[in-house]
Design a protein that fits this description.
This protein is mainly β. 0% of the residues lie in helices and 48% in strands. Keywords: Signal.
Amino acid sequence: MASITAGSWLHLLVLLVAIGTFLLHALAAAGRGGNDDPTAGFEKVELSDSDFVVQSPYNVPKSQRFQYRNGVRTFWVYRNDKPFNTATHTNPRSEVMISIHNEEGAAHATVLMLHVYDGVLRFYDGAAVEAGIYDLWFRLNVVHDVAASTVAVYVDGRRKFGASVIPSDSYYFKFGVYIQHQDQSSCMESRWTNITLYTKY
């Protein structure tokens, strides 16, 4: 489940590849409802706290950009923040990375990023996935079929988007906030709960 505050930008990055089909499941305690069950036929992957690796601006304490309280992970970042380490020139972010499969030295490709502009959840800065999501909790499911190199996005149990994606040799899930190059807010925030990973062999 995710909650986006007005003026914020949501980033979900899915870098995936290899054998099997994976699903990232963010389940709302009380969603807006839906008829489909994207998790049907999948097996839950057990995750520990150590699987949730926080990346946040290197020049401020993590607690100033991330909070985990009562089962809710809250991320926020400012336009002028630093990257998550001194070796990268990427934009500011506050997010969690869950490593799924990592081949040493293997290249990876960005499979899916979901952005929010003016309250519309989008595939990168293109196709609209869901409108009117500011200041709401909603259930987000992302299914990556590794063999077919496709992704599907579900909002509140309904399929809203699908696309073919670039294969890779390493993959992981990320969720949180990550500033992009256009339409930047001065502060971006998102909240997540009930993060669950599923697989199908």
